[in-house]
Amino acid sequence: MDLPPFLNQNAHRPPPPLSGLAVRTPFLERGIHHLARITRESYLQWESSRRDGLLQRVDPRVKLLLLASFLVLVSLKRMLAPQLGIALLILLLFLGSRVDLAPLYRRILGAAFLFGVLVPLPSVLNLFTGGEPILPLLHLRRDYHLWLYHIPQTIGITREGLHGLALLTLRIANSVSFSLLVLHTTGFPELLKALRVLRVPESFIAVIALAYKYVFIFARTLEEMHLAKKSRLLGSLDAARTRGWAAERMAFFFHKTQGRCDEIFKAMRSRGFEHQVPGYTFRKLKSADWGAVLTAATVWLLFFYW
Amino acid sequence: MVPLFSVEQVHYDYFGKIPALAGADLAIGAGERFAIIGANGSGKSTLLQLLDGLIFPRSGTIRFHGREVSERTLRDAGFLRYFRERVGYVFQDSDVQLFCPTVLDELMYGPLQLAISEAEALDRAHEVLQIIGLEHHTDRPTYMLSGGEKKRVAIGSILTMNPEVLLLDEPTNGLDPRSAAFFIDLLHSLNAAGKTIVVATHDLTLVADLEMTVALLSEEHRVEKIGLAADILADEELLLRTNLIHEHLHRHGESLHRHRHGHFLFHRHEPETREE
Question: Which chain A residues in 214-253 lie under 8 Å from chain B, judged by CB atoms?
Fold first, then answer.
């Protein structure tokens, strides 16, 4: 095979000394890289749901009902002490279920800080809610009335505001913790099947299952595309060109997804799909599951009357 | 002499849990034809991606021309450019590699990044289009091409950058015999022109045809043996142990035979294993 002359030119030279000039990574590029971590997160979740732990032995339906009932409990309790008690209970359940604590608590505390501290932070001031200021921050000459708002003469952090902030933070932390506790002790497919106990229609569950699976195919393809681009990238890419690449790739994905949908539908038809999703029969709950229900109900009542 | 690539005690795990490489050591010389072979999941593609600095080892070192290839060194603008213009990577799935609107755009992407003039980039693209036999498909969107054509565009998009090394992941996978033969001819010619060819494959025909130096990865993710293709492919016990050939039943007319089978160099019946 005759090659063009330029392919016969080989310039062997040693690497240049490091210039110290760093390559800039656009925000979108980093976002793509983080999206690709979905697969890793899912693997870790699957792996922890297969461990021999306390909650892993409990039927997914029971866990789902416990999750729903404890979320109600978390939203009902208005005092800090029971919320702290629930947080301690979750920690014990995490330990009993042999789940890796550090990555989970990073996520829990992150969500609690963002939605429980940062977003409602202004509510600790007596600008929005009344209350007894315990830490004055600003002293005005007089108080003001602006339409519906009243600005007091002394603006400061109130006891009631701090209590509300702490309560909200704990509620968010406890709700996220309970959800993660169930997610990390139950395989996602089992969890989907268990949704039927909440009367979610079969066809809806089938759509979630397909979508969930496609997210991983999507993440994997995205990661490979990211690597393919990286392998041909010689320097910094400006944000505008990165956006252009992302837009073009989205169009490609849309095209590919359409093709994939057709293929999946054909595969379903070839295996007898007739627009009806068959339901599975539930297996009987074991005595351990009933034991878990009884224990959880007792704990629920204890916290309820605290 | 400093090898082109050197890999020293490289370990890599997926998700920090699943081992992909467990202490790989090898060296690839300039102008060499080098194959990384092994069964599915043995770590071939991972090793190739590590060589291209797309992912980085948990421990161990990879060097290119004596310079470490790491996250730190590839953040340096000078070294990144030096490395990427010399090392081209052809992905197994051409769809993920082809991200430009048309075939011509795809071929011109690399040269334009190298700051080659548009006229020269266009010349290169047309010359490469002739080699890959797609000169009548210049304006076609890549998703409208067949699998074999996509693969040709994928290698073409790397060739227009004139790299010193070509890393190819399963280049003949899923290709019809004529397309596979085209690739083997092309790789012969590129090697004769001084390019280093590194292939990750379990296509033993490709390895034999190109008479490559072979690093055989075991299912335990280690480099089991490095040697010439002729020696490695002649070692049936080694190939059997590393899951590159297999024993299974075959029907020939009325008789059923069990014999070792690899769809490449040999397909022979041994009397002592014959079953009626």
Answer: 221, 224-225, 227-236, 245, 248-249, 252
